[in-house]
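Assess this:
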Amino acid sequence: MRASAIVSALALAVSLSACSAPVVVEPAPDAANPACAPEMIAVPDSIGDATLRKTTSQATAVWGDPAAVVLRCGVASPGPTTDRCVTVNGVDWVIRETAPTASSSPSGKASPNTQPQPSAQPQPSGQPTATADDGANGTYILTTFGRTPATELVLDTSKISSATVLASLASAVAKVPQTAKCVGQAEVAQLPQG
C-alpha cells in the first residue's frame, strides 16, 4: 500500500513538472488576421530538439526552453529592401541580425530595438516571457517577404540551426499565400534598361 502511494506521488510530481507556465509573447499588430490561422494550426510540435511551448498571445509560437525560436504571424510585410533575402523551400525570408542599442533593459544588458528575443525571462507573475532583454549575439530577425500578413521569427542561432528552423517551418508559413518574391542581383541585372 505504501509503495503504491509513493509511486502515485512520484507520478504526480513528474506530471506537474511537465507543466510549465505559458511564455508571454507580444502579439503582432495583425495577429487576428484570419490568414494566420492555417499557419498556426500547421506549426510543428518540435524543431530539432526544441519542443513547442504554450504562449499567451494569438498567432504566436515558441520552441525551446529557454526559447530558441519565437514566431509571430501578423507583422507588417516588408517592402523593397536591400537586406539579405533567402528562399527556403519556397518561402522568402528577409534577414536582419539584431544589434544592441544604447538603451539598457532592466537586466542591464543592451536591448535590440523593441524586437522580441528568443529567451524566456521570468516575470513577476511567474510566467516566462519572450522579450528584448538579452544581447544580440547570434540572434536574427527573419520576416517573410511577399506574404500578407507576414510572419516574423526571432531566432537564436547559438541554440538552434537556422537551416533546421526555416526548413521545419516552411510548410506552415506557406499557408499564407505568396504574392511577391525576393529579387536578387542576378534578376536586377536582367531588368530592361532605359
